[in-house]
Amino acid sequence: MKISGAQALIESLKKEGVEIVFGYPGGTVLPIYDVLYGEKAIKHILPRHEQGSTHAADGYARVTGKVGVCIATSGPGATNTITGIATAFMDSIPMVIITGQVATPLIGRDSFQEADITGITQPITKHNYLVKTAEEIPRVIKEAFYIASTGRPGPVVVDIAKDAQVNKFDFKYPDKVNLPGYKPTLKGDPEQVKAAAKLIAESKKPLIYAGGGVIASGAAAELTEFARKLNTPVTTTLMGLGAFPETDKLALQMLGMHGTAFANYAVQECDLLIAVGARFDDRVTGHLPSFAPKAKHIQIDIDPAEIGKNVRIDVPIVGDVKQTLKELNALIPVKAGRHLAWLKQIEEWKNKFPLSYKKNNFIKPQYVIEMIDEVTKGEAIICTEVGQHQMWAAQFFKFTKPRTWVSSGGLGTMGYGFPASIGAQFGRPDSTVFNIAGDGSIQMNIQELATAVIHKLPIKIVVLNNSFLGMVRQWQELIYEKRYSSTNLCNNPDLVKIAEAYGAKAMRITDQTKVKAALEEAMKITDGPVLLDFSVDKEENVLPFVPPGQALNEMIID
Amino acid sequence: MKHTISAIVENKPGVLHRVVGLFSRRGYNIDSLAVGTTEKTEVSRITIVVTGDDLVLEQIIKQLYKQIDVLEVFDLPQNESIERELALIKVKANEKTRNEIAQLAETFNARIVDVAEETVIIEVSLEKEKVENLQKLLEKFGIQELVRTGKIAIQKGGKNNG
Ligand SMILES: Cc1ncc(C[n+]2csc(CCOP(=O)(O)OP(=O)(O)O)c2C)c(N)n1
């Protein structure tokens, strides 16, 4: 039977198991929206901005591990997705972004709402397609999902000309992809795995440095087994939060610019650094030549291009993290009492330099995070924006499970967290979802309050309101002699009123003794979002802080 | 160090854009670039000359491989490859200089392919360095226009990987 390209697209999405898409209509996707009208198997969510759609699809992907899907019209609709695509690309999140394109006879003529979206997204996608005929749609969708979700995941853009959506053809969904240029290596070279096991056996002070790759490959259990077997500490990157339970005594929490002092000291002291699905980002390493100066390096990564990109690696293993850790675990003999001297040293650092903050009469932002951890008993999905609040959330919430931390690590996108929390709540309807925001960031996609209210999503929006673009202010304080250029937000609007105008519940909390009660009250609200506007200590800094260009042990601790 | 990289890519729209974009985005310098069809209709070969140390070269090759439409990538060893660059050089010439130019061209195995009243066009296909030598020697006559293709290369012997 002949069906239209738009019908073929929706049928293809169903074949891929898609249950939800986030999209915004417009001229060049009208045929797709017509098919979606009355569609039962796929739920369509209409955020209030295409940036919101992409971040929502991304948040959905992060908490479920499935491919996030969004739709946008050509031209401005498509260009509004760019920040969302770049965010997903930097953090290796599987997404398929479907954009409408002007009809093929109009392409290349500066037609109304024409933008060269495959050209624009070329550096920020794992791959992209311009589809000019209906017949290509099933194959391209099959390939797009395959590419997005396998190997090192990433976003794939499928730009479909309007006439390709309209034309009819005999639909058949392929059961295989034929991509001769794309064959991710899953199994690590056994010789390399053996070489790694040998280095590990010889090491006196090994340190596991785990990144987002552990989450992406679903290897948290294998990582935990690895660490416990070795009886050696684990530090995670911002993207790796949740890969290893922070309640475990082997946990060193986050390393890097705002990492814990004990994690950073451990990096500088270890004699073997085992990088697992981590990419030696500059926010992690600080001054590169001084990073882990005493250590040999093992790196496990599915992306060969990550191996040795920034740091020389002694034993590289290209392969899937989960599979490789399984093989490595099998090679490590069970032995009691490993690395006791090393763990003792770490314990000393933990006691001497714990994560801390000084109390005063104001609400401390760190305290709010601690209370969120307490009232949720650590069982929550934490979505953040970018800034100080993000770092405090990373530091003071104790992450114990993968896919519970949703934050823009690589691109550092303000405005990401709230729409991402919407996608997260759709993906995990039974979980408690928090959006931890700054007063700057929340205003970047505040329109999504409408989406959360309409769909009765019980998201807890916590604004750590310091009336500043806090993180930038902190840099200005420490590096630019307190010249607070364009970072003062003292003319902020009343966020409580804004939330209420959208139909959301809202509270303002100015007294530190009321923090916990407010959070408990928020937890009781189940029929829609609630915004909690905490007036926090305005000039609080995120510490530790490794000033840019310095070595990790040169951090400012208090 | 200069390297000649040969990438076998699928003949699909956007491939060249992706490859060139990769180089500019990651700050690799392209000295020359040549694209053309191969013995198989569905693939093309992109020959790129780049400057960089071994680490840079390794990254370039890995990054190229990451592109879905890139099938194979080779770093062509200089002494085991035949390398050529084609140049067309329009040189000022008159009664007096024409012979001298012709002789010079001949020593380089170059041909004069067009003679006009005040110019001649020389066609030469040689290793890049020799093309440059000829170019230098022709400068004293006055080079009016010059076009070069960028290097293409193929590996010697039975190996068909470049
Ligand atoms: C889209 C975007 N624009 C600018 C920045 C630069 N930036 C990083 S943190 C920050 C301040 C964030 O302020 P706020 O959301 O109030 O959070 P706070 O740091 O105060 O917790 C800015 C402007 C960014 N990361 N993203």
Automatic annotation (TrEMBL), chain A:
Pfam families: TPP_enzyme_C, TPP_enzyme_M, TPP_enzyme_N. Residues 386-534 form the Thiamine pyrophosphate enzyme TPP-binding domain. Its cofactor is thiamine diphosphate; Mg(2+). InterPro entries: Acetolactate_synth_lsu, AHAS_TPP, DHS-like_NAD/FAD-binding_dom, THDP-binding, Thiamin_PyroP_enz_cen_dom, Thiamin_PyroP_enz_TPP-bd_dom, TPP-bd_CS, TPP_enz. Keywords: Amino-acid biosynthesis, Branched-chain amino acid biosynthesis, FAD, Flavoprotein, Magnesium, Metal-binding, Thiamine pyrophosphate, Transferase. It comes from the Bacteria. The keyword Amino-acid biosynthesis applies. GO terms for molecular function: acetolactate synthase activity; flavin adenine dinucleotide binding; magnesium ion binding; thiamine pyrophosphate binding. It catalyses: 2 pyruvate + H(+) = (2S)-2-acetolactate + CO2. Its EC number is 2.2.1.6. Residues 4-118 form the Thiamine pyrophosphate enzyme N-terminal TPP-binding domain. GO terms for cellular component: acetolactate synthase complex. Coiled coil: none annotated. Pathway: Amino-acid biosynthesis; L-valine biosynthesis; L-valine from pyruvate: step 1/4; Amino-acid biosynthesis; L-isoleucine biosynthesis; L-isoleucine from 2-oxobutanoate: step 1/4. Residues 193-328 form the Thiamine pyrophosphate enzyme central domain. GO terms for biological process: isoleucine biosynthetic process; L-valine biosynthetic process. SUPFAM superfamilies: DHS-like NAD/FAD-binding domain, Thiamin diphosphate-binding fold (THDP-binding). The keyword Lyase does not apply. Binds 1 thiamine pyrophosphate per subunit. Belongs to the TPP enzyme family. This is Acetolactate synthase.
TrEMBL record, chain B:
InterPro entries: Acetalactate_synth_ssu (IPR004789), Acetolactate_synth/TF_NikR_C (IPR027271), Acetolactate_synth_ssu_C (IPR019455), ACT-like_dom_sf (IPR045865), ACT_dom (IPR002912), AHAS_ACT (IPR039557), AHAS_small-like_ACT (IPR054480). Keywords: Amino-acid biosynthesis, Branched-chain amino acid biosynthesis, Transferase. Dimer of large and small chains. GO terms for cellular component: cytosol. It catalyses: 2 pyruvate + H(+) = (2S)-2-acetolactate + CO2. It is an enzyme of class 2 (transferase). Residues 4-78 form the ACT domain. One of its GO terms (biological process) is isoleucine biosynthetic process. Its EC number is 2.2.1.6. Pfam families: ACT_AHAS_ss (PF22629), ALS_ss_C (PF10369). CDD domains: ACT_AHAS. Catalyzes the conversion of 2 pyruvate molecules into acetolactate in the first common step of the biosynthetic pathway of the branched-amino acids such as leucine, isoleucine, and valine. This is Acetolactate synthase small subunit. Pathway: Amino-acid biosynthesis; L-valine biosynthesis; L-valine from pyruvate: step 1/4; Amino-acid biosynthesis; L-isoleucine biosynthesis; L-isoleucine from 2-oxobutanoate: step 1/4.
